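RECORD TYPE: inverse folding
INPUT: structure tokens
STRUCTURE:
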């Protein structure tokens, strides 16, 4: 008789829940016909859970640090099997359980479960990403109000993707969270707006709660009439548009420098110095030996093509190692083993660095770009607000204007770099210039 009810006969495995529960418990007890089968299943589940635990930990470790998983192959013991299998093998050296698993299940080929293939960790990465994304969406819903920032960029396969970043307040602090990449086929403001709204709808995030939007200065993003911000503002007038302050500063700095011919020539010289020295291992070794002799490790750097403010690193390296770089070029120019072309280029670069004008520009741009770069990094912080951004830009403007009164200081510092006291124009042939509008600069000094 069943002990859970008044019926007669054995418990029915297809009966009510209480009878099915009783049947399962009785089946697991010693003496039942399927006891050993249940025990074997439990052992197998425990075994594979232990394997998956180690696989998940390695996957999480690599994903948190943005490291590559794959290698040239997926063979156990190969030096080209990638970071994932490499970490598994490293742990196995101190974990007998994992070592036994690799011995019994490693390199068995497709169709044989091992939980060590690329398919497994790709599924785990996707599952972890979904879990993190769901957590972020829950935080956004809890915060209610948010702002959005997007930008489009091509990946390594030249497929354009829309980067979606959400900014909201959590525990009294502003936080920024990356949500996803959205593949796009068009760069029009309408297409970008539609793509973003569709994604927010799928994630059940109400765009009516959006209180801000920030993009770069491209017309398809910030256009006043047909840009993405204008189309979104038609749907939600409370979604105020604020141009990206760091991007705007980058454009201002780049355009201001391009308007000055001397500045353009100076940055071209900085790039030529890096290209010339790094194009040959011998020339680079000459520079390295001189840097080590002076106990300095800061080397010449290339200019950035995208972030104008990042040129601060290249100019700072030239400023700090001005004499070392110049003497390296002079040594290459005096080396008879070098080709005539290399010696001629070294002479040309060294001669330009000997000019007082070049040294002054180096001092001036070091001061400007160091401050520009610091301001740009501050503008990109997640917890910055509009008031702080405005104060930073106004402070930067005042700083640049104040440099107009410090020319004598820059000139004194430049003379220490070069040992030259006169400007190039002071001892060069005067060129007759056509004056217009009764303007005559013949009385101006070279420094003016």
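DESIGNED SEQUENCE:
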């Amino acid at each position: 008789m069943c002990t859970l009810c008044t019926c007669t006969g054995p418990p029915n495995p297809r009966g009510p829940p209480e009878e099915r529960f009783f049947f399962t418990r009785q089946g697991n007890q010693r003496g039942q016909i399927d006891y050993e089968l249940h025990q074997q299943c439990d052992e197998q589940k425990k075994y594979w859970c232990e394997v998956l635990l180690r696989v998940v930990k390695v996957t999480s470790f690599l994903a948190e640090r943005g490291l590559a998983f794959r290698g040239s192959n997926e063979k156990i013991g190969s030096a080209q099997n990638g970071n994932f299998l490499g970490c598994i093998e490293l742990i196995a050296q101190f974990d007998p359980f994992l070592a036994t698993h690799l011995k019994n299940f490693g390199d068995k080929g497709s169709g044989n479960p091992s939980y060590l293939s690329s398919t497994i960790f790709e599924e785990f990465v996707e599952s972890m990403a979904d879990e993190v994304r769901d957590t972020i969406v829950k935080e956004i819903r809890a915060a209610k109000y948010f702002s959005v920032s997007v930008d489009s960029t091509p990946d390594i396969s030249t497929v354009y993707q829309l980067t979606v970043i959400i900014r909201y307040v959590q525990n009294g602090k502003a936080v920024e969270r990356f949500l996803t990449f959205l593949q796009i086929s068009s760069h029009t403001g309408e297409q970008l707006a539609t793509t973003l709204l569709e994604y927010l709808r799928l994630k059940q995030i109400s765009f009516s709660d959006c209180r801000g939007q920030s993009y770069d200065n491209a017309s398809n993003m910030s256009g006043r009439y047909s840009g993405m911000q204008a189309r979104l503002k038609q749907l939600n007038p409370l979604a105020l548009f604020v141009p990206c302050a760091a991007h705007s500063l980058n454009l201002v700095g780049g355009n201001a420098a391009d308007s000055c011919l001397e500045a353009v020539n100076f940055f071209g010289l900085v790039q030529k110095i890096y290209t010339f020295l790094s194009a040959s291992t011998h020339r680079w070794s000459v520079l390295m030996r001189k840097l080590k002799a002076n106990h300095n490790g800061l080397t010449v750097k290339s200019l950035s093509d995208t972030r104008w403010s990042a040129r601060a690193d290249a100019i700072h390296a030239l400023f700090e190692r001005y004499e070392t770089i110049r003497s390296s070029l002079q040594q290459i120019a005096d080396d008879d083993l070098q080709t005539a072309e290399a010696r001629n280029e070294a002479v040309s670069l060294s001669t330009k660095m000997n000019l007082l004008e070049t040294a002054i520009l180096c001092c001036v741009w070091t001061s400007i770009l160091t401050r520009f770069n610091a301001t740009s990094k501050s503008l990109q912080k997640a917890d910055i607000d509009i008031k702080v951004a405005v104060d930073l830009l106004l402070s930067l403007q005042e700083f640049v204007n104040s440099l107009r009164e410090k020319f004598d200081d820059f000139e004194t510092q430049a003379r220490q770099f070069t040992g030259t006291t006169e400007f190039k124009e002071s001892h060069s042939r005067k060129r007759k210039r056509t004056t217009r509008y009764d303007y005559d600069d013949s009385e101006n000094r070279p420094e003016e």
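NOTES: The radius of gyration is 34 Å.
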